[in-house]
Design a protein that fits this description.
heterodimer; A: alpha/beta; TIM Barrel; eight-stranded parallel sheet; B: mainly beta; 13-stranded mixed sheet; 4% helix; 35% strand; elongated
């Protein structure tokens, strides 16, 4: 099928296209520069055209979601949409049903989403849920930061062995890249403890977060994985944590980037907002965004996503189990906890972010400060760490905040607690994002950060993942406070979402359902080392895991359809 | 000017698959004519059927708003769910039994059931009044499953017995049970008033943080988290004058609770 999107106003930061009137041509699921006369014309005159959105960090599939749905049946009452001839019924707000997840991303014009935390032991479950999520390709990241084998390799300083282990485990779990969550902290949680800072060792291991992050980042570059190390540093959500964050980023400053990757960074710091707190306790907590943003402005080896708080009743779920316990003690609401054997832990609680609550107002303001203080939009990505700081359906609302300083002032003056003004610099920041910046932080930058060459842009050869929005950028003043609700509305229901050359959304409604593809990285060139490593670790595996190795692996029928990223590590 | 619209639905065919009445509340039907009812399709299972298959319909008078409406449901409504769901005003009278969720999420008006009611009567009720002449089953005046914010206002009066977990997570309003009550009445409650006329099996007030529970009958088993604060004669509890001797407990200390549980001293001499 061929399409030509005619006369749209195109934003494609990858190719420096900023609001040019252009036709976008599609053939066989790819962007092309020429189509035949049979091409179907879609008249998008004056409308906003971008590549489909790419989400670098969200929790959309896997056991945490399932526990969340079981544990929060009350959440499923919100967001109920009856089935149609094309779609299944939707339920849920912060933890939507699988199909609702796909439809909602698709309606916002997104085409690729990263599932940010997959314990390899539960990878099968994650892939099963991805099979039930339509219309978005999913790149799952496997958790390595508290894995016993990883800790063992790090302790022995055996990077070669660690590389072989990572390579083998990505194949076993069919994941796209590596994620580290509170390195050593979730392991300490097995003993009811946490670690504080990057130099506090995990009990009984004598290995620190710094050593784990460094070793895994080195291995990531040794193998040349498409995505960089994706890290959730220690001390999440604790006042005074920003030096830990800078310390973590600085710990890998000297690691040399693999020359074969398209990304610029060697470390991606996720939901940075939760890691930028100053002060010593919640009494004197204040923003630590400025020093962290300053560090990022000066260091190109770092990228981040924000994890913007959106003032909703949502659900927090993370492999940072000790932090979840702290949060449970603060909120007093219900709490679920899970131990993932040799790999990690996880926790889950409901949370209500209220604009009237001092701490939540501070968190909201710190998130926006990061967006505005980090100069290069290619280093910062729009996320809510969905659903932790807010559900992903709020992305359009965040866009409206970024595009209008008047709207932010209005909120600071009338809607949010005064901590947002008194304890952060948000009120003094009048920078606004334009459509090009929005396209960068929601598509182009995340695609590049993830190492996805064919996504996040509209160049020839790119995947034909395109979003068209029913707004005329040339005749619309996005800086006006009263237009914020228009942005939120329009960006939340795409006029067209095209996935691999097929129209899946039209006028904000799902018109076609296609299966999501499982993106995974297949590292070659380490076969011998992998064999040896597997032999070496098998006694420990057999002794401590409750599953047999034969049943541990994700079989191919769990990842149909798949996109395999073949990496030649020997190169 | 005084107006009143009386809508009478008389059951003529019993459906073993439950009918759902969430749309048939005074708020939506106050301006409906008889024809409107005859054209209406009522949800049953995963589909809808004409209301006239099941009911004879009579409409008399007219109304300007839901407060002018009196709905009378005659017959065995034990397979009619969501009667009075989210109603804000007006009156509904059920001359028979009612199925699940009667008066759930009710905001105002009154609902009277001249029979027994199933579980979830007055779930997450915010205002108005519910009176049940017979018994209610489990979870009367509670929260939705998983929800930690339960009934916050209004009055539920049950003349018969109540089942398990009465008023789970209650945070306001009043509940009066004339008869006996099963386990865990007032569990997780944070505010509000519960009065039980008859006997209670076990564990009232488990993990209660605040609020008041009065038990006039015999309690078979008290939780360990309740601390005896002495005996009071004819106590005045939240403006309600009780007669006789009552033992006062404070709890549940397991959650640092400051709720009060009052037990009739005569009926619970074993605790003296």
């Amino acid at each position: 099928m061929e399409y030509i999107l005619k006369n749209g106003i195109v934003y494609d930061p990858t190719h420096n296209v900023t609001g040019d009137r252009k036709d976008v041509m599609i053939k066989d699921g790819k962007i092309v520069d020429n189509v035949s006369s049979d091409a179907k014309v879609l008249d998008v005159t004056d409308k906003l055209v971008m590549a489909a959105g790419v989400d670098v960090h969200a929790h959309i599939a896997g056991p945490k979601l399932c526990v969340g749905r079981l544990y929060r049946p009350e959440d499923s009452r919100a967001g109920v949409v009856p089935k149609t001839d094309i779609t299944r019924a939707e339920t849920g707000f912060s933890i939507p049903s699988c199909s609702a997840t796909g439809y909602r991303y698709s309606r916002m014009g997104y085409g690729t989403v990263t599932e940010a935390a997959v314990p390899p032991l539960e990878a099968k479950h994650t892939h099963e849920e991805i099979m039930a999520i339509p219309n978005i390709d999913v790149s799952p990241l496997a958790l390595f930061g508290n894995n016993w084998f990883v800790l063992q390799f790090v302790k022995k300083n055996d990077l070669e062995g660690l590389a072989a282990f990572v390579s083998a485990w990505l194949k076993l779990s069919k994941c796209y890249g590596m994620k580290v969550v509170n390195p050593c902290g979730s392991e300490a949680w097995g003993w009811g403890m946490n670690v504080h800072g990057i130099d506090d060792p995990a009990p009984h291991w004598d290995v620190t977060g710094r050593e784990v992050v460094r070793a895994l980042t080195q291995v990531n570059e040794m193998l040349g994985l498409p995505h960089s190390m994706h890290v959730h540093p220690n001390d999440l959500g604790h006042p005074g944590n920003y030096p830990t964050t800078i310390g973590t980023l600085d710990a890998v400053k000297d690691v040399k980037k693999n020359p074969n990757v398209i990304r610029d960074q060697t470390i991606h710091c996720t939901h940075l907002q939760f890691h930028c707190y100053g002060g010593t306790s919640w009494r004197d907590a204040k923003s630590g965004a400025a020093p962290v943003a300053d560090y990022i402005n000066k260091n190109k080896h770092v990228t981040c996503d924000v994890g913007q708080v959106t003032f909703d009743e949502t659900t927090t779920m993370t492999a940072d189990a000790p932090m979840e316990y702290d949060l449970y003690k603060l909120s007093g609401l219900k709490w679920a906890n899970k131990d993932i054997e040799l790999e990690t832990a996880s926790g889950l609680i409901p949370i209500i972010y209220s604009p009237k609550a001092p701490v939540n107002a501070l968190q909201w303001a710190i998130g926006l400060e990061l967006f505005l203080l980090i100069n290069d939009p290619w280093q910062v990505v729009l996320t809510t760490d969905s659903p932790n700081a807010g559900p992903f359906i709020r992305y359009p609302r965040i866009m409206s905040w970024l595009m209008s300083s008047d709207r932010r002032t209005e909120m600071l003056e009338n809607e949010v607690h005064k901590w947002a003004t008194k304890r952060t610099d948000l009120a003094s920041l009048d920078r606004v994002y334009d459509w090009s910046d929005i396209a960068t932080v929601t598509r182009s930058a995340p695609a590049k950060i993830l190492g996805l060459e064919q996504r996040g842009h509209l160049g020839v050869g790119a995947n034909a993942d395109v979003a068209v929005y029913d707004i005329e950028p040339e005749n619309f003043d996005a800086t006006k406070a009263s237009n914020a609700s228009v942005i939120e509305d329009v960006m939340g229901r795409a006029a067209y979402t095209i996935k691999d050359g097929e129209i899946v959304v039209k006028d904000g409604k799902i018109v076609k359902v296609v299966p999501s593809r499982h993106m995974w990285t297949n590292v070659t060139g380490f076969e011998e080392q992998e064999k040896k490593v597997l032999e070496d670790i098998m006694p420990m595996f057999n002794r401590y895991y409750t599953v047999k190795f034969e049943n541990y692996k994700v079989f191919d029928h769990y990842i149909d359809p798949a996109i395999e990223f073949k990496i030649d590590a020997g190169k | 000017m005084f107006r009143l619209k009386t809508i009478t639905l008389t059951l003529k065919k019993f459906s073993s698959i439950a009918l759902e009445f969430e749309e048939l509340i005074p708020d939506t039907v106050y301006n409906w004519s008889k024809e409107d009812f005859e054209n209406y399709q009522v949800p049953i299972g995963n589909t809808r059927f004409p209301l006239t298959n099941y009911f004879d319909i009579e409409v008399e008078g007219d109304a300007e708003g839901p407060e002018d409406v009196k709905m009378i449901l005659d017959g065995d409504m034990s397979r009619v769910k969501y009667i009075g769901y989210r109603m804000t005003a007006g009156e509904i009278i059920v001359n028979g039994d009612a199925d699940l969720q009667a008066g759930a999420e009710m905001i105002g008006g009154s609902l009277k059931i001249n029979g027994n009611a199933e579980s979830y009567v007055g779930r997450e009720m915010r205002g108005g009044s519910i009176e049940v002449m017979g018994n209610v089953r489990e979870y009367c005046g509670t929260s939705y499953i998983g929800e930690w914010r339960g009934m916050s206002g209004g009055v539920i009066k049950v003349h018969g017995n109540a089942g398990k977990q009465l008023a789970d997570c209650m945070s306001g309003g009043e509940i009066y049970i004339g008869g006996s009550c099963d386990i865990l009445a007032g569990i997780h409650m944070t505010k509000g008033y519960i009065e039980i006329g008859g006997d209670v099996t076990r564990w009232p007030g488990g993990q209660m943080k605040n609020g008041t529970i009065v038990i006039k009958g015999k309690l078979s088993s008290l939780l360990e988290g309740f601390k005896n604060e002495g005996i009071f004669v004819d106590p005045d509890i939240e403006g309600k004058q009780l007669t006789g001797k009552y033992i006062k407990y404070k709890g549940d200390i397991g959650v640092n609770g400051k709720g009060s549980l009052w037990l009739n001293a005569e009926k619970n001499r074993n605790l003296l």
